[in-house]
Write a structure and sequence with these properties.
210 residues, alpha/beta, 2 domains, five-stranded parallel sheet, 5 strands, disordered N terminus
Amino acid sequence: MSICGTMKPEAGLVVFDIGNVLIRWDPHAAFRHAFGSDGEIDALFDEVGFYDWNYANDRGRPRVDAVAAIAARWPQHATLMAGYFDRFGETIRRRVEGSWEIIAALRARGVRLWALTNFSADTWPEALRLHPELGEEFEGIVVSGHEGVAKPERAIFDLLCARAGVAPEACYLADDSAANVAGARAAGWQAQHYDGAEGLRTDLIDRGYL
């Protein structure tokens, strides 16, 4: 019999994504010192493929290799892009309101809480420095940059299950990425596309976690 069939929902894990679920991620903030508008920053992002570049970093590529990849194709942007790491703290200043209150409510009910985040190993220490509560609220955190694999790949969901000692169907993920939600469901998890605390709270109530 599956774990899901022998456990109440609240005995499973609720797993939170971090970026744009618990803390706002605004990558433009690391470049506003150099540009007059976010439109100009978007043009840079398009030119260098910023989001694909960042995803490779989240999958474990170290800073030195990330900067080298830019320098090899866009040497004129190498210094600016290297500065993203130095200015990363500016991109994650704000917490997402409402989500932390849900964490508190789940904790009060004794729900096990984990986090699963796509995050570069080079920038993760800054997240913990600015938001030390990240290191306090969860039983465990799986950081993609430490593991060399990232959402929505199946392996990272299986890795968290192994560390937490639960079957996939006992895990519930809240994530702002539709691709990550689909990846979680393909791995046998429950998952909710996060578009605000109100919707997440409603879904957790419907599923019996709150």
